[in-house]
Amino acid sequence: MEALRVRMSCRGALLGLAVAFLCSAGSVQSFGQSQDSEFTFLLPAGRSECFYQTAIKNGTMEVEYQVIAGAGMDVDFTILSPNGVRLILESRRSDGVHVVEPMEEGDYEICFDNSFSRFSEKMVFFEIIIEGQGGDVGGDDEFPGLEESDGSLLEYKLDDIRESMDSLHKRLERSRQMQTVLRAFEARDRNLLEDNLWRVSFWSCASMLVMLCVAFTQVSTSVGTFTPFLSTQCKAEKVFALFFMFHPLSLLL
Amino acid sequence: MVLSVPAAAVTLLVVWIYPSYALYFHIGETEKKCFIEEIPDETMVIGKYRTQLWDKQTGSFLPSTPGLGMHVEIKDPDTKIILSRQYGSDGRFTFTSHTPGEHQICLHSNSTKMALFAGGKLRVHLEIQVGEHTNNYPEIAAKDKLTELQLRVRQLLDQVEQIQKEQNYQRYREERFRMTSESTNQRVLWWSIAQTFILIVTGIWQMRHLKSFFEAKKLV
Questions:
Q1: Residue A235 Cα to chain centre, angstroms
Q2: Which residues does B207 contact at the CB level (< 8 Å), separation at least 6?
Q3: Does pLDDT of A23 surpass 50?
Q4: Is residue A186 less than 8 Å (CB to CB) from chain B?
Q5: C-beta atoms surrounding A116 within 10 Å
Q6: Where do the GOLD domain residues begin and end (chain A) (predicted)?
Q7: What class, spelled out in words, does domain A32-132 have in CATH?
Q8: In this structure, what DSSP letter does residue A70 have?
Q9: Contact list, B138 vs chain A (CB under 8 Å)
Q10: Is B117 helix (H, G, I), strand (E, B) or coil?
Q11: What ipTM describes this predicted complex?
Q12: pLDDT of residue A29
């Protein structure tokens, strides 16, 4: 009985230690991980890709997307709630911003559909910003388990400083997100411009070749077709032959 | 009482060892999913993923699938492969960019046995952290012995540095954009001049050829 109790208490202590260790390891893992994610991915032609985002109850989710490359530069966009209700459906848009609020418990499904396009692959950029109930996720408890400086006399001032630094941090994050969006816009314009450059070169070359071919064909066909007719003695026939040689529609006859 | 403690420990284990990553998607067996990250140079990128396999018997996704790994391939803006490695069912890959531009991160599963995918799909939780988001602040605090406020200041400094790097990269991109635009304008100009010139030359050639043809046939 005594031995059993000692063994149980030993085991309990070990378990407690393991739990404490895991707790600290877990707190490091869960530290300050922003729930915001942004991805740029390739959407092949005729395919549909879906991404799932786990929701925080009563939080806000902002989804922004942009098509940055691909002929047509448009894609179908859908957001489905965890219960399967289609909240947002957009057809063939090149960019959009949507806010889902308040959020239900579960996984939201965000889909990009390129089935209407048979050949062109699209590059889509999207960004999901999640905010908890009272502001951003990972607010005050971002650095748990750290020793706080002993500012018992300066407690009030330190709190002020801490608050302004927190707000600065959030605003800088927002600046980064804005930069990301601007970068996506610039990437889209750059892809469009590079496509234009290639198109200008190609079509100029093609049209010049066509021009030369047509000139050569015109001369050789008209000369070749009507040479026999010009050897007649009859003047009227000669006039007819000359007329048909130079009338462009005669080539179609 | 004896059973509840291990049960609680197991629950805590599950909660802490498997933190929920932000976004997940489904991938087929031979499917390759590619993500593009446009980053400035000397920027560290950490990608973390976790896979789950659909289990037909329980009708849900199993937490981990040993033996099923993912092959990760990363290409730099010059399409040169900088990382091509196989990882397990939970993996973490990291790289630092040396040239600014679009880096491509491609994932595909390495499963050769159809049986593992009998249910259909593999669920992949993915998180990609760029720049100062890769810094592990508790570790930095422990190493440099910083208080909370000092750590916060360090974080703000890193953020501002990353914003500055992005802005420099933006300047470099804008210069490239301007060069491409000027090159397009020049090409339009020169091709138009060339086409007009060739048109005139062809016209003259046509006239002269036909004139000599008529003179030969004694029509003129």
A1: 74
A2: none
A3: no
A4: yes
A5: 13
A6: 48-130
A7: mainly beta
A8: S
A9: 28, 31, 143, 145-146
A10: helix
A11: 0.74
A12: 33
